[in-house]
Amino acid sequence: MKYAYFPGCSLTSTATEYNMSTRAVSKSLDIELVEIPDWICCGATPAHSTSHLLSIALPVKSLVQAKEMDLEVVTCCAACFSRLKVANNVMKSNEEDRDKVNQIVNADYEGEIKVRHLLDVLVNKYDLDGLKSKVKTELTDLKVASYYGCLLTRPPDIMDFDDPEEPKSMDNLMAAIGAQPLEWPYKTECCGASLAISRPDIVMKLTFDILKMAKDAGAECIAVACPLCQSNLDLYQGDIERKYDTEFNLPVFYFTQLVGLSLGIEPERLGIEKNTVDPWTLLETRRLV
């Protein structure tokens, strides 16, 4: 199993632990990730709030590189996944935009390279039964709130990945490695994303509600698939606790970190020491490290 890997800006900077755990898990499962040469930023929020053509041309530039590799693309950041999928949709369905973008990137691209999220690959391509056979340390009854965020499954006609309101892929993955995925109502609510910079007050309220719902559901930790979600829930959790005079103490893991632990991969290869909210007490209590 071989894919053209688009890490994106976050995984090579503020979310290096996501990149580390993705590569470690993929290697353990014999999934070959070949990094797209000369990939560039997908544009994320700034591009599509500034220029429609820029927001399409940026991801297409990297997709053209993947086309030359003749491989499907896999990415891990929910924002990157969204922008790559949206770009493909535009290039397939809008002839006028397609011509303009192809002129900008000096290529002939029609949205033909399939883009997958790593979560999709593990659940729907690798096969959960095959993954179970590789598990060395089950995360027995670890109560996990799977948090998908607002971008991973929406808009459903473009993302074409899981149910937009009641997604199950991460829950099924957690169950496959022995954890106990919880039913809770905020699994697709927005955390505020990059508003943490311009409107931290909004992000504080949104993330407080998410953390409270997870805690009330009995979660011992949260699993995420997006660097912005992880940052808001993990990095700012202490500030949120002080603002609302409460205590959550909920470690926030990338789903790849939890899968990696179940596969017997050393915590340092998964970047777990980079997590802000103390993960060690929980992991040591459960004898996972």
Taking strands numbered 1, 2, ... along the chain, how are they ordered across the largest sheet? 2-1-3-4
Termini gap: 29 Å
Element order, helices and strands?
EHHEHHEHHEHEHHEHHEHHEHH
Number of helices: 15
Count of domain modules: 2
What is the correct CATH architecture of the largest domain? Answer: 3-Layer(aba) Sandwich
Roughly how many Å is the radius of gyration? 19 Å
CATH class of the largest domain: Alpha Beta
Q: Which structural class matches the secondary elements?
A: alpha/beta
Overall pLDDT: 96
Total strands: 8
**Tell me about the biggest sheet?**
4 strands, parallel
Description of the structure:
This protein has 289 residues and is of the alpha/beta class. 51% of the residues lie in helices and 10% in strands. It contains 15 helices and 8 strands. It has helices at residues 8-11, 16-28, 44-48, 52-69, 78-93, 95-105, 118-132, 156-159, 169-176, 195-198, 200-216, 227-235, 237-244, 255-262, 280-285, and strands at residues 2-6, 32-35, 73-75, 115-117, 143-147, 180-181, 221-224, 252-254. The radius of gyration is 19 Å and the shape is globular. It starts with a strand and ends with a helix.
